[in-house]
Amino acid sequence: MKIRRVGTAGLLIECADAQRVEDWRAELWRRRSAGELRVVEIVPGARTVLLDGVAPGTAEALPGWEPAPGGIQSEGPLVEIHTVFDGEDLASVADLWGVTVDTAVRRLVETPLTVAFSGFAPGFAYLRGLADEWAVPRLAAPRPRVPAGSVALAGGYAGIYPTASPGGWRLVGRTDQNLFDVRREHPALLTPGTRVRLVAM
Amino acid sequence: MITVLRAGPLTTVQDLGRPGWAHLGVPRSGALDAPALRLANRFVGNPDDAAGLETTMLGCTLRFERPTLVAVTGAVADIDVDFRPVERLRGCQLFAVPAGGVVDVKRATRGVRSYLAVAGGIAVEPVLGSRSTDTLSGLGPPRLADGDTLPIGVPTAAPTLVGEPARPYGELVLGIRLGPRDDWFDTAGLFGSPYRISPLSNRVGSRLAGTAVTRTRAGELPSEGVVLGAVQVPADGQPIIFLADHPTTGGYPVVGVIDDVAPLAQAQPGTTVRFRELD
């Protein structure tokens, strides 16, 4: 673990892999709930956890809070995403994987996914769990408009567009579920640590 | 109630933003020149986090249904109330608008963004605890359009007289703390010849044009959380300084973080910018 300073009130914890990011995120959220950590934001990334708006002394306390190796094993909530697999890029994804479309869909529904971090847009979750060798490149030219609810792949991640926006991810399907609603007590359906299963409709 | 007669190129409702949601991908948003909004709120007796209006370069024109106390801070701009000019004192135009009165905030002669506070605050519905328009994600009320109406809240306290924080409008010297990814760059270029504010700058970030900051290592950075004032360096080496509507995570390395973004809110395109390293 390495801690980097970010401006006057930020700290960036570098982690060995995505599982350590999840371990740290869960540990820091727990300590914040317990009143041991005062911070404005805890933002997981692909290999880092950012603390923004920390109280003095936090950098010194962090090394003593390192989660036990092997992880906390506290499982996040499970959310099923009902997905129609008819994305415009599903065939190209199957080609990149060297399998049939049916096999590609089976992989997507059989792979347990976890929200690694959020970004790009409110409620947009980067889902990890797909095998490294299934990583697919972004489209050469992003689409000017990807519909809300599009289930898509890029890099080693799966993601679901909460709102219509431009986007370069490869579309494999779509869902009717509302990923982000500011009127809900918990606006985002998918938050860091949430476990996700894609269910074919 | 306020009726928008002329919205101007980009006038938005802004308070101090919605920090605390970055882990869901929700930008902080809020007034770009937060000290100026706080000042305007204090002049009319509002709490610091009351919502006001942020104009961009060309001001806006508003009609007030009821008599209202109004303060305008930030960019230096002439203001007429019912075609009569209002004097600027202590960095603020503070005036009472009669019922049916029309306030015209004109083109900024120095600075970019004016902050208009009304006693009681702009009372649009908050979203995730804030009334700010987020131009990146679309959260909050839409930018003002001609003919819009805005509700005003109930004044809570008496106005106070306060002083303006000193604000230079010429060349900017920005204090920067290197990191977290300064080891990806030859940082000498950052402190060499000055940069200029690009006209492509907006509420998401101030784009700088000048000497490219060169990378000393190849490869891509996995996406990571970024903070207000982060100086991100994309592939072309031209730095972008993140302002209030910045994305919550980014895939380009951040060479350093500046300690105060408010001066950038008032920096017109072409303004010269230098960096000074803080320890």
UniProtKB/TrEMBL annotation, chain A:
<dbReference type="Pfam" id="PF02682">
    <property type="entry name" value="CT_C_D"/>
</dbReference>
<keyword id="KW-0067">ATP-binding</keyword>
<keyword id="KW-0378">Hydrolase</keyword>
<feature type="domain" description="Carboxyltransferase">
    <location>
        <begin position="1"/>
        <end position="190"/>
    </location>
</feature>
<dbReference type="InterPro" id="IPR003833">
    <property type="entry name" value="CT_C_D"/>
</dbReference>
<dbReference type="GO" id="GO:0016787">
    <property type="term" value="F:hydrolase activity"/>
</dbReference>
<dbReference type="InterPro" id="IPR029000">
    <property type="entry name" value="Cyclophilin-like_dom_sf"/>
</dbReference>
<keyword id="KW-0547">Nucleotide-binding</keyword>
<protein>
    <submittedName>
        <fullName>Allophanate hydrolase subunit 1</fullName>
    </submittedName>
</protein>
<dbReference type="InterPro" id="IPR010016">
    <property type="entry name" value="PxpB"/>
</dbReference>
From TrEMBL, chain B:
<feature type="domain" description="Carboxyltransferase">
    <location>
        <begin position="23"/>
        <end position="279"/>
    </location>
</feature>
<protein>
    <submittedName>
        <fullName>Biotin-dependent carboxyltransferase family protein</fullName>
    </submittedName>
</protein>
<dbReference type="Pfam" id="PF02626">
    <property type="entry name" value="CT_A_B"/>
</dbReference>
<dbReference type="InterPro" id="IPR029000">
    <property type="entry name" value="Cyclophilin-like_dom_sf"/>
</dbReference>
<keyword id="KW-0378">Hydrolase</keyword>
<dbReference type="InterPro" id="IPR003778">
    <property type="entry name" value="CT_A_B"/>
</dbReference>
<keyword id="KW-0547">Nucleotide-binding</keyword>
<keyword id="KW-0067">ATP-binding</keyword>
<dbReference type="InterPro" id="IPR052708">
    <property type="entry name" value="PxpC"/>
</dbReference>
